[in-house]
């Protein structure tokens, strides 16, 4: 008899060591762990502390060794280049081994960092696995970030090598990556010894002698490298994510716990078996790309789809259905914003009928709050379970999910269902007391976090403790606010910090404000995430000028918008700002962003008791109205 979700969940909470220790037997260890959890230095908890393994071995070589080398590991589908490429586990293993050899030849050692700045091509996944193969720590930077953001990450991670491509392709636009990389290395204090550049036919990158090497010819002549057994707690990668300040947080992922949790999640959460085709339509630069384009599916022996395109415009809103039909995708995972984009262009879902998508069994959504309208539209059009699940870069996999591989629980629009196995959740008030009334509070997870979650922040253990574990001792503070209903369903409503979510991309309003504040005419500014029909949220900036000056406001606003694009990148999607005379503040000087956001969203708000000058809110409301907020 199969186990119910309740029984499985309870086991995971009552005896986590037994639960995860059992699941650890499903992965290949060079040295099997004798100890499951070392929590002697909490919150720096260590899973499988004395185990040794290699993540690349588990993702590729193991399947070849088990006789499944001819199965497809990866399908690259690129409508923007009219290419489909299919790579078996054997081929992938061989190509990754040579790339790893090329890195080793350039002096990359276990523990060294390697930065990856690449578009959605198979080589990006191979680059991650090649690092894992030789024990190097990869750090992928999303292609939509500008040189300045790349430089910040280079200086923090101090990579010995950078792997990049000559260009990315965004719809019908070619974005040369190499000039951004060169500029970033100019800006950074740390200089990598080697840059391995994948020349794509669309753009030939200029090469800098002594540093830059051609990917194809270097890899062709390299000797394949074997997998290096690594301690389970060795960092597998560092992935930078937005926090409250402009300095991004380097989320560290260790090896053993991640391999165990991710492999298990493929069956338990997504309900796919080895050999099934699984598609996460995201980007390698985000955590979804790490966990569910690269590691999760490959660890489980699934075929992963890498899609270099958009839900709309490449060429039409039928792109997703075409890919599902062509490659017999069983489970699709994307962000709600992708579905909002499809719905906007094809409200009746007419493109779905043009393809045979009978292979599809479920749609998973995450990355931002899933509005019930979008979920219900997808349910109605696909006639399949549409499953919202909630997670973060920090956790690496779902905090709350409907584990369809265990038992599909009733779907409640607006909720990512129940806490996933391993996560014991509470809702706390500002004093740290549990809220049992179903009211909104801070969503927290009792320690220890399950395997796969971040054991620390790169170069910033103090920030790890102060950002996540000090407000509520004994708990991990997710940074999300919400409630848990009487059936145990979690509702994630908003962030408690200055993080916003634009088209499923996590951004810091603090970082955007820092870029704006650097403009010589800007004395003060505030950025808030305002509700957006397509992208979930959109950043809107309010600028106070230094001297009330005689310069044309429109010109300053345009320069500010360009500044954010240049310093953070197009991904910030910062397109709207206006000049105001003052910002509303509390008497202690705190800018009242939440009140301004409520005015912009047209939701109910109360005059804050501590406001220093209520009249200013009228001016802000007028300025927002001129920008078109609240939307009708
Ligand atoms: N390299 C370079 N530029 C990039 C980029 C990349 N990898 N990714 C995005 N950009 C650019 C875009 O071209 C756009 O530039 P523009 O201002 O010149 O038009 C800008 O960054 C903003 O990108 P985005 O917010 O993604 O907007 P979009 O209009 O290009 O696409 C969606 C909107 C909804 C179609 C798209 O965001 C989407 O498919 N999102 C859902 C899936 C997803 O990736 N989720 C993330 C985590 S799960
Ligand atoms: P990231 O680290 O980029 O994955 O962003 C994580 C944040 O996105 C979370 O802290 C939430 O604020 C938001 N998020 C992700 N998934 C969901 C979801 N299913 N529902 C609500 N918010 C979500």
Description of the molecule:
With 632 residues, this protein is an alpha/beta fold. It has 2 domains: 399 residues, Rossmann fold, CATH 3.40.50; 124 residues, GMP Synthetase, Chain A, domain 3 (2-Layer Sandwich), CATH 3.30.300.30. It contains 18 helices and 31 strands. It has a 7-stranded mixed beta sheet, sandwiched between helices. The protein starts with a helix and ends in a 6-residue tail after the last helix. The model has no long low-confidence stretch (mean pLDDT 96). Adenosine monophosphate binds next to strand 25 and strand 26.
Overall mean pLDDT stands at 96
**Unreliable stretches covering 5 or more consecutive residues:** none
- Give the overall silhouette: globular
Report the sheet-strand fraction. Answer: 15-25%
